[in-house]
Automatic annotation (TrEMBL):
Taxonomy, superkingdom: Archaea
One Pfam family in the UniProt entry: DUF7344
Protein name as catalogued: DUF7344 domain-containing protein
Protein's organism: Natronorubrum sulfidifaciens JCM 14089
InterPro entries: DUF7344 (IPR055768)
Domain DUF7344: 40-118
Length: 131
């Protein structure tokens, strides 16, 4: 796995405690999300990229399309890992870890059988933080 030093800060790191109106907006929505859940969601670059892709798409997205987009963002042409291997790793981590977590907090809906991800009730609350 390649570690990109320019990606070590997460979306949450860009907001100092108490100074982020956008972060507070997420916490004060009608579909309230616990502060620890917001931190957990924003602590992963892959989860943030999933949210960005869903916000950009504004509708259902196939998991394979999501995997391809995230692998393309993470791919380093100078890396030893082939793109196909990276896509397989992204697919496994999304399906086993990231998508179920995001679904748990109603940020998205993940249909494993159909292979689709759709925006959830609380997704729009993350839009301002991810810009």
């Amino acid at each position: 796995m390649t570690i990109h030093t320019d990606r070590l800060t997460t979306a949450l790191d860009r907001y100092a405690p108490g100074s982020s109106d956008d972060l507070e907006a997420i916490l004060s929505t009608d579909e309230s999300i616990p502060r620890t859940a917001v931190r957990r969601v924003l602590d992963s670059d892959r989860r943030c990229e999933v949210l960005r892709c869903l916000l950009a798409e504004d509708g259902p997205l196939e998991v394979r399309t999501l995997v391809a987009r995230i692998a393309d963002v993470e791919h380093d042409a100078t890396a030893v890992t082939p793109l196909l291997d990276l896509r397989q790793r992204v697919h496994v981590s999304l399906c086993q870890t990231h998508l179920p977590l995001l679904e748990k907090y109603r940020i998205l809906s993940y249909d494993q059988t159909a292979g689709h991800v759709t925006p959830g009730a609380t997704l729009s609350a993350f839009e301002a933080v991810l810009e």
